[in-house]
Write a structure and sequence with these properties.
Distance between the termini of chain A: 58 Å
CATH architecture of chain B: 3-Layer(aba) Sandwich
CATH class of chain A: Mainly Alpha
Helix content of chain B: 25-40%
Number of strands of chain A: 2
Oligomer: heterotrimer
Strand content of chain B: 15-25%
Radius of gyration of chain B: 19 Å
Largest interface: A-C, 42 and 42 residues
CATH superfamily of chain B: P-loop containing nucleotide triphosphate hydrolases
Helix content of chain A: over 70%
Strand order of the largest sheet of chain B: 6-7-8-3-9-10
Radius of gyration of chain A: 19 Å
Largest sheet of chain A: 2 strands, antiparallel
Number of domains of chain A: 1
Number of helices of chain B: 10
Structural class of chain B: alpha/beta
Strand order of the largest sheet of chain A: 1-2
Strand content of chain A: under 5%
Chains: A mainly alpha, B alpha/beta, C mainly alpha
Largest sheet of chain B: 6 strands, mixed
């Protein structure tokens, strides 16, 4: 019985962690769906989002300790960070990727590596390399039901992620712009002929992906702290999530993220992976997933037309 | 004599049957045309035979050997060369380098195949080997009147010449069987005229040719034998004269006549 | 300042070697690999272990470093080279990090006081930078010539054919897998040799010096000079090292933080891709069938260039 509750506990932890991976994975998958390239800088946008969130939150909070104001400040900070990250994402797309849309396949990838380097080192220059704590805007004492404990932070992660994903699903499936987005990811030239402004769709995709990454970054920051290279590992894991779910597929990214979160939360204690080798295992999983199932669970197997 | 035959060849793409139970023969020394409406499975059939893709069912027999499922590089080494519907040249290489690459397995040996020393030799004496490969490549370019462009980048050639260069590259491997996938697509009438001469010249070299083409004038003029595909199925086979009068073929192209 | 200038010459030699290796993989064969830091690391460690633990001379450990790095390249290449473009890039990034991670776990502090390299009784001490410059650049020259020979041989043509069009290459009878692996192994081996020289110069190895940043710097070197052009890549190595040591060279260490250089590397990648994807010097167009003998070609190379001469 004790082990069962333990595992339920792991799954709960995994679910909340996975929700964040899903949010970040959505950005990878949406961009891949439309431009067929991996936005290497996505992880760094997450980091920038977390920094913006932290700075705005601390500035708003000042010396106030009122719990209501703390929550309000947090949500304001999150929204400001989402907006600024969205603008950053759109700016990066305009400057670094748009001129390369017709270049060979390696070009945007190399450009993205460059952007990632600029962002992470720029952040290190401005904010220093020390990691900072993102204070909880509430009392983070775990709540326990029947041996399973869940922290308010975890509840926040779940609620925010679910709300974001529901909004995204609504946007993509029910609105005109969402329809345009799906059409563009299926066939860009035809969509353009049908009067869809492809440039706007791509801009919007980057904006949404970056805003979601910012939310993911802020939510992750409570546990992982904020530092200039925080985006690399979290970004890569989210990328794995996107691949597991089938890159290019929006529901796939959601499922993949949650699956990866649970795998990580259950697998790490189950297999007794030493701390020093955690990254090695994560990378090994990444490579195995790429090799064995590059099209993921929900992805389509695309073949080159000869 | 039969050079190539497919037996009940079928290729499915997740429920869509692109090639359906096609048994198709190619006689040595003839020019065989493969025609059919768009989406009939002609290129898919080419891809199965040349090893670019693997068939779901059925066999491919080339020169008495079962080559079903062989990788493309192996198939080409047995003597099947091809061109592509959307020209696939090495665009950033020069014209002569393209043909030299076509000679890849004719001169020199691969590394890591129990022939490491030979590969090393091929590397150490690259200059001498290059001279030989270059000489042969230039012969092919002269054959196609492309020798004056030998040092130009392949991408800088006009369209018609690019098509011819692709054929030259394929022929450089000295194939027994040459597949041409819509060689006249996008060509103007003068270029098409020239292409017919080229195919004639290729035939005179003793190379068997199979071509996919939509230009009926070209097909009817140069093919000895025609096979017609529609919706992945072979609907007719015969001489150009017979095909012209075949009811099923006319229906496939023009639709069924109202009763 | 002269001191730093000499340091730049040494490190641009090391990076030129690495870049020749990366160029073989990325420039010639068109595979975007991001684990050159891993091969560099393996070469360094192999040399350190050979020299310190087994007491071998530097000259013996040089081929060992190349072989070990090449072998690891083979082990990595066989499964991953099936992947294309973006996926290959991410997988190799992961593998580079795994190599560093394993090195950190086995040997977190690194290896120090490695015996010096010597040649005919002459000891290459770190303070004799001039001798090192000659040693490293002699090897850069050797590998440059070997690579040029390779690029214009059957193997090199097969590699460029794969870069240009994999499907067409297969249909030309090129066993794509085999040539991809060959290219990867060669590139890895040259990366290992670069690691060997790094060890010989610093006489210490530490896992913290083989980060992802090194891989990006090497990639940047190749992109800046010109993919597929060995001459350009050497020029790229010099420029990149000049940027890296700019503060020390000009005495601005307190004013410009090290992150600025790395931002410049990132900027170089973006700007080059947009402005000049073929690199500063562009592709190296080789003229086959030049009737001149090697001696005439060398003589011509030293002649002042005539205007409007034959291409």
């Amino acid at each position: 019985m004790a082990t069962l509750t333990l595992y339920i506990q792991y799954i709960v932890n995994g679910l909340t962690l996975g929700a964040i991976y899903s949010l970040i994975a959505l950005g990878y998958t949406m961009v891949y769906g439309i431009l067929k390239f991996i936005n290497f800088a996505h992880g760094d946008i997450l980091m920038v989002g977390a920094f913006i969130g932290l700075i705005v939150y601390e500035a708003l909070l000042g010396t106030s300790t009122s719990p209501v104001w703390m929550m309000a400040a947090f949500f304001i900070a999150m929204i400001v960070s989402m907006v600024l990250s969205a603008l950053l994402g759109m700016f990066i797309e305009r400057v670094a990727y748009k001129p390369l849309r017709n270049a060979n396949r390696l070009a945007p990838l190399l450009s993205a590596i460059g952007v990632s380097f600029i962002l992470s080192n720029g952040a290190a220059w401005i904010f220093g390399t020390q990691s900072r704590r993102f204070p909880y805007p509430f009392d983070n004492t775990p709540i326990t039901f029947g041996g399973i404990s869940i922290t308010p932070h975890q509840i926040l992660m779940l609620v925010v992620s679910v709300v974001m994903m529901v909004l995204l699903a609504f946007f993509v499936n029910k609105t005109r712009m969402g329809k345009a987005m799906r059409a563009t990811s299926l066939d860009q030239p035809t969509s353009a002929l049908m009067g869809i402004n492809v440039n706007r769709v791509i801009s919007l995709t980057f904006a949404i992906g970056s805003a979601l990454a910012a939310v993911g970054g802020i939510l992750a920051a409570f546990d992982f702290r904020v530092y200039p290279s925080m985006g690399t590992m979290t970004g890569l894991k989210a990328f794995v999530a996107a691949v597991i779910g089938g890159i290019g597929s929006i529901p796939g990214a959601m499922i993949g993220g949650i699956l990866l979160g649970i795998l990580e939360a259950v697998g790490a204690p189950l297999l007794h992976i030493p701390n020093g080798l955690k990254d090695t295992v994560a990378f090994a999983v990444l490579i195995i997933v790429l090799l064995l199932r590059p099209e993921g669970i929900l992805g389509k197997n695309e073949r080159e037309k000869v | 004599m039969r050079l190539l035959s497919t037996e009940h060849l079928t290729r499915e793409f997740g429920g869509v049957i692109a090639v359906n139970d096609v048994s198709f023969n190619v006689e040595k020394g003839l020019v065989t045309g493969l025609i059919g409406p768009n989406g009939a499975g002609k290129t898919t059939l080419f891809n199965q035979i040349t090893g670019v893709d693997k068939p779901t069912r059925g066999n491919i027999i080339f020169d008495g050997q079962d080559i079903t499922g062989f990788p493309a590089w192996k198939v080409s080494r047995l003597g099947i060369a091809r061109t592509f519907q959307n020209i696939r040249l090495y665009k950033e290489l020069t014209v002569v380098e393209n043909v030299m690459t076509g000679l890849h397995f004719k001169v020199g040996k691969d590394p890591f195949h129990g022939r490491f020393l030979q590969a090393l030799k091929s590397y150490a004496f690259a200059q001498r080997e290059n001279r030989e490969v270059y000489g042969k490549a230039m012969e092919w370019l002269r054959f196609f009147d492309l020798d004056s462009h030998a040092q130009d980048f392949a991408r800088s050639l006009p369209y018609g010449m690019q098509r011819e260069l692709e054929i030259a590259r394929a022929l450089a491997a000295d194939p027994k069987l040459l597949f041409l996938d819509e060689p006249a697509a996008g060509m103007n009438p003068a270029e098409t005229e020239h292409l017919m001469e080229v195919v004639d010249k290729i035939r005179s070299l003793g190379v068997t040719v199979v071509l996919i083409e939509h230009d009926m004038k070209l097909v009817m003029n140069i093919c000895d034998q025609i096979t017609v595909l529609n919706f992945g199925t072979k609907i007719a086979e015969g001489t150009p004269q017979a095909i012209k009068q075949d009811k099923a073929v006319i229906e496939a192209y023009l639709g069924k006549e109202e009763e | 300042m002269l001191n730093f200038f000499m340091l730049i010459l040494i490190y641009s030699g090391v990076y030129a070697l690495m870049a020749i290796g990366q160029n073989c993989i990325t420039g010639s064969t068109g595979m975007l690999s991001l684990c050159h830091a891993g091969f560099f690391c393996i070469g360094s460690y192999a040399t350190a272990i050979m020299c310190k633990v087994f007491g071998l001379s530097f000259w013996l450990s040089l081929p060992v470093a190349a072989l070990v790095a090449g072998f690891v390249g083979f082990l990595i290449g066989v499964p991953t080279l099936r992947l294309k473009g973006d996926y290959l890039c991410i997988a190799t990034l992961g593998l580079g990090e795994i190599i560093r991670n394993i090195a950190t776990n086995i040997n977190p502090v690194g290896i120090t006081s490695i015996p010096r390299a010597s040649l005919f009784g002459y000891q290459f001490a770190s303070r004799n930078k001039g001798a090192f410059i000659i040693l490293i650049w002699a090897f850069v020259l050797i590998f440059y010539i070997l690579f040029q020979q390779l690029a214009h041989s059957r193997l090199g043509r097969a590699m460029t054919a794969i870069r240009e069009d994999e499907v067409a290459a297969q249909s030309n009878g090129i066993n794509v897998t085999k040539y991809k692996i060959s290219s990867f192994v060669l590139g890895a081996a040259i990366g290992g040799i670069a690691g060997c020289f790094q060890t010989a110069y610093t006489l210490t190895v530490s896992p913290s010096s083989y980060t992802f940043m090194v891989s990006v710097m090497v990639l940047c070197t190749v992109v800046l000079g010109g993919m597929g052009n060995a001459k350009a890549v050497i020029l790229g190595a010099f420029i990149i090292q000049f940027i890296s040591y700019f503060q020390q060279l000009t005495g601005l260490t307190n004013i410009i933080p090290p992150q600025a250089n790395q931002m410049i590397f990132g900027l170089i990648l973006v700007v080059m891709m947009i402005w000049r994807p073929q690199g500063l010097l562009g592709r190296d167009k080789y003229r086959y069938g030049d009737p001149r003998t090697m001696r005439q070609k060398i003589a011509a190379a030293f002649q002042p260039r005539k205007k409007g001469g034959e291409r």
